[in-house]
Amino acid sequence: MYNYRDIRVVHLEVTQRCQAACPMCDRNENGGADNKHITNAELSLEDCKQIFKPEFIKQLNSMYMCGNLGDPLSAADSLYIFKYFREHNPTMWLSMNTNGGARDADWWTELAKTFGKYGTVIFSVDGLSDTNHLYRQNVVWSKVEAAMKNFIAAGGRARWDYIIFEHNQHQVEEAELISKDWGVEKFIKKKTARFFSSAMNKGKDEHQAQNRRGTQTITLRKPEIKFQNPALNREHQLINTYGSMNDYYNKCEVKCKVKEEGNIFITAEGLLMPCCWTAGRMYKWWHNDYKTEQIWDYINSSGGKKGISVIDNSLQDVIDFNPILRSIEDSWKLTSIQEGKLEVCSQKCGTEFDAFADQYK
Q1: CA distance 80 to 170
Q2: CB-side neighbour CA atoms (13 Å) of 139
Q3: Which residues pair with 10 in a beta bridge?
Q4: Pairing status of strand 186-190 against strand 196-197
Q5: pLDDT in tens, 55-93
Q6: How far is C-alpha 230 from the geometric centre of its chain's CA atoms?
Q7: I need a labelling partner for 231 at 20 to 30 A (CA). Which of 51, 117, 261, 355 fits?
Q8: Contact criterion met (CB below 8 Å) for 167 and 128
Q9: Residues 225-251, mean pLDDT to the nearest whole number
Q10: How far is CA 34 from the centre of its chain?
Q11: At CA 163, angle to CA 35 and CA 80, rounded to 5?
């Protein structure tokens, strides 16, 4: 069971805004038009002060900004929100994931001072000057380089996450050497799970990107075998064992990653969900009616968006008294997706197929 006093980690999606147009991101259509279901919602410092009381912040081990639809750099108040959390918990871990393609030197210096030794910025940079923009469309390399160098020069602890595609696999070693030269603490070679479609429940070899004008750009392809996600190779084994991936999802044991950590997710609309994966099913752009997704059965039965809003309700009331967290957890005991077992939980936290964890192997 979830309990307000047991929460130790907050995953905060502070904004739905982003200057980039990554072709495998849900905020746009394959790098083209913006997702028609999102509103570019954003949480302000005042919102966060209302949601997260000082006594709650004191009990936390960590707060990190990432999410599904936006980049913290695009939020007006992201720096001030970090400062607010740091003010009330000097030793909690603070971090954010970002494409790094915005903000000036003063902003990065101030962020480094706010984090101190208890925090890190995870820079999602997938290539070098001639390749990073092929996936991180609209991100300017010179701004990324300046951001990383300014943050590190001010004492910031940086991590570089490098998603490996066919088009940038030849630069992995060079990028790692550059990261060391710049003072990056960790260089992570990510064996992406993006070549498994959770919409179709099967793997794929390529993904066609487009730009804002709808013109096709790069065809994203899987890298060579040594850089591929090991979980993708288990798809056929699971089909042989269970009959199909859908049958695996029906029958698999769910071992929730975030519940074990005491982790909750707050969306840019101020909605509480267990994790970014469950929230990530809310606004799929390929649906005309986004509420056809199974997650809406759970949201609607919990009072709709108003019922799980931590702006309209206190954070403690939503965690302790709204049924959303408990009903999702209870669904794992059901015998099939059709009966109500939440499919996204089987996809992301099923014990025999973990493409998320396998990115780092």
Answers
A1: 39
A2: 34
A3: 63, 264
A4: unpaired
A5: 999 999 999 999 899 999 999 999 999 999 999 999 999
A6: 20
A7: 261
A8: no
A9: 94
A10: 18
A11: 65
Task: Say how far apart CA 21 and CA 66 lie, in whole Å.
Answer: 16
pLDDT higher than threshold 90 for residue 330: yes
Strand runs labelled E in 153-312:
158-163, 186-190, 196-197, 202-203, 206-210, 216-221, 263-266, 272-273
CA atoms of 72 and 78, how far apart (whole Å): 6
The continuous run of DSSP H or E covering 330 comes out as helix 324-331
For residue 190, which of 65, 260, 119, 97 has the smallest C-alpha distance? 97
Interatomic CA distance for residues 70 and 68, integer angstroms: 6
Query: What is the residue-averaged pLDDT of the chain?
Result: 96
Contact in structure between 115 and 79 (CB atoms under 8 Å):
no
The pLDDT confidence band at residue 1, using thresholds 50, 70 and 90, is low
319 exposure class (CB count in 10 Å sphere: 0-12, 13-18, 19+): buried
Q: Which two tokens stand for residue 160?
A: 């570089």
pLDDT given at position 359 = 94
SS3 state of residue 202: strand
Task: Return the H-helix or E-strand segment holding 153.
Answer: helix 141-153
Which residue(s) pair with 221 in the sheet? 206
Distance CA 306, CA 254 (A): 28
Q: What is the pLDDT of residue 118?
A: 98
State the number of CA atoms in the 13 A half-sphere of 279 facing the CB: 26
Instruction: List the domains of the chain with CATH numbers.
Output: 4-360 (3.20.20.70)
